[in-house]
Amino acid sequence: MKSTKSFHVPVNVRLSHAVRPVLALLLAIVIGYVQGVACGPFMPIIPTPEFFALKGDPRPMSYYQRNENLELWQAQTSREIPLGDIEEVVYDDSLDSFNEYTGRKPEKTDNQFYAYLNSPKGRDAAEFLRTAKTLERLWAEIRSPWYYSKEHGTVIEPERFNQIIDKCRQYRGTQMRDRYALQITRALFASRQYQRCIEYSDSAFAVIPDDNLMKRMARGYEAGCQRRLGDTHDADWYFAEAGDIFSIQNANPAEYMARINPDAPQFIDYARHYAHDDTVMRDIAAIARRLVYDDRVTCKGDWYFMLAYTDNEFNGDASAAADEIHAAMRHYFSSSELRDLARAYKMKFDVRNGDPGTLLDDLKWLEQKSGILNADAGEWVRRTRNIIYADWVPQLWQQKQYGLAILLCSYADNLDTSVWDEVWDAPGLFGFPVAVRHTDFSETRDSETLDNRLDYGCLSFQLMGSLTSAQLADAYDHIMTDTPLNVFLRRLARTDRDYYNEVIGTLALREEEYSRAVDYLSQVSVHYLRTMNLDKDGYFSRDPFAHYASRWYTGYYDKEDSDETGALQYEPDGFDYECGVASHRYVSNPNAKLDFARKMLAYKEQMTSAPTADERGLARLMYAIGRFNSFEECWPLTQYWRGMCDNIFEPELQYWELGFGSRYYGFLYDYNTTVGHRATERIYNAERSAALAMLTTDEARAQANYILGNLATIVRQYPHTATARYIHSHCDNWRSWL
Amino acid sequence: MPDGRHEECNAVYYWKTVFRPDSAELAFMRQHDVRRIYLRMFDVTETEASDAGDIESRVEPNATVTLDEAYLNALEDLLPDVEFVPVVYITLEALKAVDGHEGFLARNIVTMVRNMCHYNALPGVTELQLDCDWTASTENSYFTLCDSVKRCFKYLELPWRLSSTVRLHQLSEDVPPVDSGVLMVYNTGDFSDPDAENSILSLGDVSPYLDNLPGYPLHLDVAYPTYSWQLLFRDRRFVGLLNGLNLEDTVQFRRLGADIYGSLRYMWYTEDDLMMTGDIIREEQSEYETIAAVKSMIDKELSGRRYSNIIYHLDNHNLSKYTSDEIDEIFSRTR
Q1: ipTM of this predicted complex?
Q2: Do B112 and A152 touch (CB under 8 A)?
Q3: Cis before A438? omega within 30
Q4: Which residues from A are below 8 Å from B42, CB to CB?
Q5: B114: chain A residues, CB-CB within 8 Å
Q6: What residue in A sits closest to B63 (Cα-Cα)?
Q7: Rg of chain B over CA atoms, in angstroms?
Q8: Do B119 and A145 lie within an 8 Å CB cutoff?
Q9: In this predicted model, what pLDDT tens digit does every residue of A449-474 receive, in sequence order?
Q10: What's the pLDDT tens digit per position in A85-140?
């Protein structure tokens, strides 16, 4: 992990005015080491939240009936009573609590439904609920693992259940008649009087309309009775009528359901349950294509959504899916949840026509869904990110809308900075962090010591670095244009000038556009530069105009690095090299890029306008060394990451999709696959040879060899030069002579 | 026992999950005049949701015995005078899980046992026994449970007595509020100790506790072991109980000591559990000589008191290792 290099600088050598500053630069040379690892943005993982699938196990039947029942109670009692109060009484409170609040201690609750039940007009409802809760308790008792029947016989606890049934039969009113009929049905089912249950239910509900909730609920118990009596055929029919598709034993439950009860909300949930099974989904889609034209189906939005999802995810037909999702939005959905999911899913297709049309409204809506008061907020953030990362950014990039792509991406990157920003500080033994502190992210962003893991590790930063300097400058102009969408996105996205100018300047260095680099880098504040991780970790501490004998190593090889046997031509110590850039005793220079650009401009000027060939040649040599180093030994001048992790920065879906990264994000800049160290070396070698060929005097040649570290060559070939004399009198490192 | 009094008689524990004694076991009971069967009805164990706020879901009955009604009817003809004492084993974890809610557990235990007895027409039930390895820290909870069970008897108008197992170490503790007890003279050592000689029964393990026996202010019957087991150790750590492995199989095992065997190769000893090469198996028996020696000491300490001797537990495979005289000797009572 250590690399120690020592150089002795011949400061007293007599040199021309032009060469003197060149050698002076050699003062900034590496001695010692500082550890550091070049960590770029780790592979961005694009969240893959559910857009259609139902989470977890299939919902129980009571889930579908609960709201309807509460609304029915409200209609039957008082519209003034909140549904929450009714729910508490009907579903949550035990028989004991109910008896307490409707008996001895009515003042102990402020529930408005209890107030109604305790009033004269609420007596019937109270009596019914007491009976229903008594039945529920008895049923719970016999379902308990502690239950052991006391008596023999096929009927469970006949006396106790019959008491309840008798009580239900005594009701003579009309309003609660269907509710009492359902309770008798339940009591007969619970006590295992299955045949009697079917007969009673058929008879009791014969005069009650089919859409009556109690009748539909009773159908489920009848189905259960049929199943237990061995009549699978009738049981399936009753289950379908009740909407309980998961209990249907027919070979094709979906087809059966489509025939008997296609409008049941459980049907679409059945499809959602199988959302990851392409075979089942394609089978159901074939049925769905009929359902969207079936007059019995009121919630066609559900089925158009299902078709869009299937066509997009499993049939690879995004065009059909786009039509279907738009059709879905014109129809009713069985739930607001499905409508919301469909709207979010629609956003994935909107970008394909290149028109951000409803994007602003949709993003505002998504932000509301992601609000902290929403229990599902985290999942909505994941959906937002998926839509932006997986669909919008690649499409916008393809459409060359770079500004919007970067801005939108940065918006997504910064959606929940307050949530994830953890600061590791309080260094303990050996400098390892021992405490994690949660802070406002702005503290990290402004800090000259804390690691900023967002701004330089996010996808939008990669996008910025994948353009030319001119393109990014144009994109920034677009980003800062005050359109309603831009203004909205800029609220969260990072768009400050320092952030962009620094990257534009760096891209210019990459392009050898040093004049442009100076323009942009000179506008960047030193404070900002000190907040960059590259500076904090000491990556700007090496001299870009020194000649480094070894080759920068990142673990990336190409064919040319191997000999004819396939073996590597060199075997450097990987980690030493990776840390090498930060291995310098000098303090990192935050203005290193600007200084470098200015010096390169100066050398470029000298290469053509210096008075002597020697001066022009030495300047050319320094320029070649500087250019080479800016990509290799001093790569932080032109790159933001290099090292063992090269080549794996493509975004990938959380649930892997083979080839997603290369298909949608193949445009992301990667030094190894765009320029590569071999090409950089070739240019350097050619330029160095050309520079040396320009030199006309031994003194200049000696100076050039000194720059290149060839001390033995100087002493051997140019012994009469001032450089050689200096070496004789100053260099005491015998290794340098070898 | 029509008059409901607890009388001395020969007795056995029945500790399997299906009550269906085979012909040899029935013959054993007839031959040795067994008049009382302590029948394990179920265990009370904590559930996975034992830390839930809802007390109802913290503990549950487990491994409930299956009773065959037709068989029980036939049994009445074969053993007309036998009485049953339903036994409920409560794990210490379950007891801790219901701390402060013992009334709930008592109600559920009594109701379930009552219903099981009623449904299966279990003959001669006048007693319920609780089996729990309570300690000083759980004593209060266990005693509260006993009190609650007795209150449940009254509430449900059950003319039952309550008994409790009493382990040797519990002799020095407070006396549980029950009508009688059964002194468990087995599991006297630490079965997980790789150096234990015999954890089922050892004279040395028993004798220190017997000082408290003569003055123990509760009627006690005494249960002696007749079982054997094989204990598996790996790296001197207890791994599990084995069941009926043929340790004389020299391809698989090598005898390392009197009752110690080493595993020569790996083998699946259950569907999920693997025995590794080098594992150690210790086979423990309830040796008659040891039982006789311990019983002699206990009889001496209980001289002058009335008590029954009980065999733990009714299993023909184990009982066949004893002669009829030895069994008679275990059952014999001195006054």
Answers
A1: 0.91
A2: no
A3: no
A4: none
A5: 150
A6: A145
A7: 20
A8: no
A9: 877 878 888 899 999 999 999 999 99
A10: 999 999 999 999 999 999 877 788 899 999 999 999 999 999 999 999 999 999 99
